[in-house]
Amino acid sequence: MFVSRKYMRAVTATLAGVAALGFATTADAKVEGDTIILGSAISLTGKYSTNGIHAQRGYDFAVDRINEMGGVKVRGKSYKFKIVYYDDESTPARGAQLAERLISQDGVQYMLGPYSSGLTKAIAPVTEKYKIPMVEAEGASRSLFTQGYKYIFAVLSTSEQYLASSIALAAEQAEAQGKKASDVTIAMAFENDPFSLDVRAGVVADAKKFGMKIIIDDKLPRDLSDMTGTLTKVKALKPDLLVVSGHSKGAATAARQLAEMRITTPMVAMTHCEAAKIIEKFGASTDGLLCPTQWAETLSYRDDMFGSAADYDKAFKAVYPDYKNVPYQTAQATAAVMVWKDAFERANTFDKEMLRDALADTDMRTFYGNIKFSEAGNNIAKPMVLRQIQNGKFNVVAPTKWASAKVEFPRKPMF
């Protein structure tokens, strides 16, 4: 029999009474004194460490702000947040092992997600087994939300949306030049991981809608350190659009080798541009690159905790001045902690089943965007946007509703 995510609770009067007296119970943890403990296995080393650290800093930034503003109010008392971290070493098996440790040994009952869809896929079965709610900010793979999980809630848009907007933009530009959208040719290079393969699926589906032809369909090498094989083909076949997805390391490799090989493809779109800090690393050669983002500081989102998206951007950079651009991975990690605060205060309890139901009922506005979960646990209230690097800055160029600048086409990188 199907049971709705929103109506799973079955808390007895006896358990509620015990909890009200403040005694520890299996369902009523983990709280130590005036501190609510959240747990996360996160990539602090390994190939995902760049983004893992971005996410950790987003979590910590939220915790600090929440605690400074009076904490989390439950049953008439204020509590602070604290996060217990373990380094999953960018390895799914290690991530699952550490999730077990957090839950079974450390007693953590409230989880924050890891970095990447692959790690989230490894951890989700563990949190489901123990019925531990997890708010995650970095696992966008749409396949996470087709498994019937009832304890996973994701604040970000799903992965098939990431580069699909570049297909629509390529169609617009072709038609503006008097061509047909179906005349556009596409080259693709994707990492062989759940996130990137879902991004690829979105690109393929949208290209098919417009009748575009995919002339290169390559997988990036496992270590993400060299894509000259693909770029040699790009140089020879001259596609109108090149799309790339390989997390931060793949983005850095693509940006570097596009310049080294002087690739002049009119439109290039890739994931993880700002997280890889490609502007800082490769300078003017990155001008014209298109970068999908879950969030941008120019968007009109706001909340009572951080203010506007621009306010968040400024406040984060004041604490971490080495950031020229705040990655969306950081912003969405902050939003995940905000979701936990909101759920605790609405549920007014530490009971994990009642908290799960409160999470399922989430409907809130944040500096990062609106957050409302579908029955499957993905956020259905926030779109992706597409930014272009213009004179060393990220400017939103699509969709038009959110655009802060006009797209520059064809791109004219300064090699």
Task: Provide the fold topology.
Blueprint: H1 13-20, E1 31-32, E2 35-42, H2 49-68, E3 72-74, E4 77-87, H3 92-105, E5 111-112, H4 117-129, E6 134-136, E7 152-154, H5 164-176, E8 185-190, H6 194-210, E9 213-219, H7 228-237, E10 241-245, H8 247-260, E11 267-270, H9 278-282, E12 290-293, E13 302-303, E14 307-308, H10 309-319, H11 328-347, H12 352-360, E15 363-366, E16 369-372, E17 385-390, E18 393-398
Parallel strand pairs: 2-4, 5-6, 6-7, 8-9, 8-10, 10-11
Antiparallel strand pairs: 1-2, 3-4, 12-17, 13-14, 15-16, 17-18
Write up this protein.
The protein has 12 helices and 18 strands. The protein has helices spanning 13-20, 49-68, 92-105, 117-129, 164-176, 194-210, 228-237, 247-260, 278-282, 309-319, 328-347, 352-360; strands spanning 31-32, 35-42, 72-74, 77-87, 111-112, 134-136, 152-154, 185-190, 213-219, 241-245, 267-270, 290-293, 302-303, 307-308, 363-366, 369-372, 385-390, 393-398. The protein has a 4-stranded mixed β-sheet with strand order 1-2-4-3. Helix 3 runs parallel beside helix 4 (117-129), helix 5 runs parallel beside helix 6 and helix 11 (328-347) crosses helix 12. The longest helix is centred in the N-terminal third of the chain and has 20 residues, at 49-68. It is globular. The model is unreliable at 1-28 (pLDDT under 50).
